[in-house]
Write a structure and sequence with these properties.
Order of helices and strands: HEEHHHHHHHHHHEEEE
Helix content: 40-55%
Strand order of the largest sheet: 3-4-5-6
Number of strands: 6
Oligomer: single chain
Number of helices: 11
Largest sheet: 4 strands, antiparallel
Shape: rod-shaped
């Protein structure tokens, strides 16, 4: 606020003859006039290690511009005025209900941004969630972290800085429109620093709309996660069939043995495996997915044996008409 008029000059002039352009904080004792002890005050609760002296008009204007909760915010804001920059500080109200807090404090753009942060978190989780295969509780923890925890933590850390910016702008407008501190305070007192209806209607409504908007994509991500988990279990179930095919190649078993193992797998694991077929000529295993594989029931995965440079069998997973997001990493290459 270096460009704001000084409401209480240290030269003893009356409020109607203020000098323009002075900084609102008087911190240089060498240049302060003897009247400083009269027209300035020390603000308790400020964290600066140096003695910080501010004009009382600024503290009063901040208090009026803030309204409820001014006792908590004013010392912190005056400290930031001295240093010229804000620092992350924790705000529980903004953490628990970011858009509700923002709209209550009449931070309109910030309230919209806070409402959209969970939506952005869903898209970020969609890119990350595909790496969680058969992760169980870890998937839900990651979802909560992206959609709820990270947006709320960001709001909790930076809410005070955002409110400081709005308060500074309100005070600057009031000072620019008047010629005395008294008139500026009266102008601020006539404003509305908070809005309960905005908190309820806009804040609560944004939470409801965000929840409704997040429902379908979260459900889609859960279906994809459940499908990947089911495919992982399916591939684990047919591992015995693959081993039987490898034994047939090494002359310690036959393809008939492999087919028998496949039938047993289909009988014992009907939820994920509907049928297993083994090609007698190539040893290729075709797995038809069972009804408990979300989004891929009735579709098939081909497991084709190949030989590497050391003449060892390596299995190639080839999905048939299955979306890549429903597949584990081993079947996407």
């Amino acid at each position: 606020m270096a460009d704001n008029p000084r409401m209480f000059p240290s030269n003893g002039a009356s409020p109607g003859h203020e000098s323009r352009g002075a900084h609102p904080l008087a911190t240089d004792s060498a240049t302060a006039a003897p009247a400083t002890a009269i027209d300035t005050v020390r603000i308790p609760g400020m964290t600066s290690p140096d003695p910080v002296v501010v004009r009382p008009a600024l503290a009063v204007m901040f208090r009026v511009a803030l309204g409820p909760g001014a006792d908590r915010y004013v010392p912190r804001f005056l400290d930031w005025e001295r240093t010229g920059r804000a620092r992350p500080r924790w705000n529980w109200s903004a953490f628990l209900a970011p858009p509700v807090w923002a709209f209550y404090r009449r931070l309109w753009i910030e309230g919209i941004a806070f409402a959209l942060l969970p939506v952005a978190g869903v898209f970020a989780f969609a890119a990350f969630g595909g790496t969680l295969e058969a992760a169980g509780a870890a998937w839900w923890i990651a979802l909560a972290a992206f959609v709820w925890l990270q947006p709320s933590v960001l709001a909790g850390l930076f809410a005070d800085a955002l409110l400081w910016g709005r308060t500074r702008r309100a005070v600057a407008r009031a000072e620019a429109a008047t010629r005395s501190a008294t008139k500026a305070i009266e102008a601020l007192a006539g404003g509305r620093p908070t809005s309960t209806w905005a908190a309820v209607v806009l804040g609560g409504g944004s939470v409801v709309l965000a929840a409704a908007a997040l429902g379908p994509p979260i459900r889609a991500e859960y279906v994809a996660h459940a499908a990947r988990e089911a495919v992982v279990r399916t591939l684990a179930s047919v591992r015995g069939v693959q081993e039987a095919v490898e034994a047939a190649r090494e002359r310690t078993g036959t393809i008939a043995d492999a087919r028998s193992v496949g039938r047993l797998v289909a009988q014992n694991d009907g939820r994920y495996v509907e049928d297993v077929a083994v090609n007698a000529a190539t040893g290729r295993v075709r797995v038809s997915l069972g009804p408990s594989v979300p989004g891929a029931a009735g579709k098939a995965i081909l497991l084709a044996p190949t030989l590497d440079a050391a003449d060892r069998v390596q299995w190639l997973c080839v999905p048939v008409d299955i979306p890549a997001r429903y597949l584990p990493e081993s079947c996407r290459r």
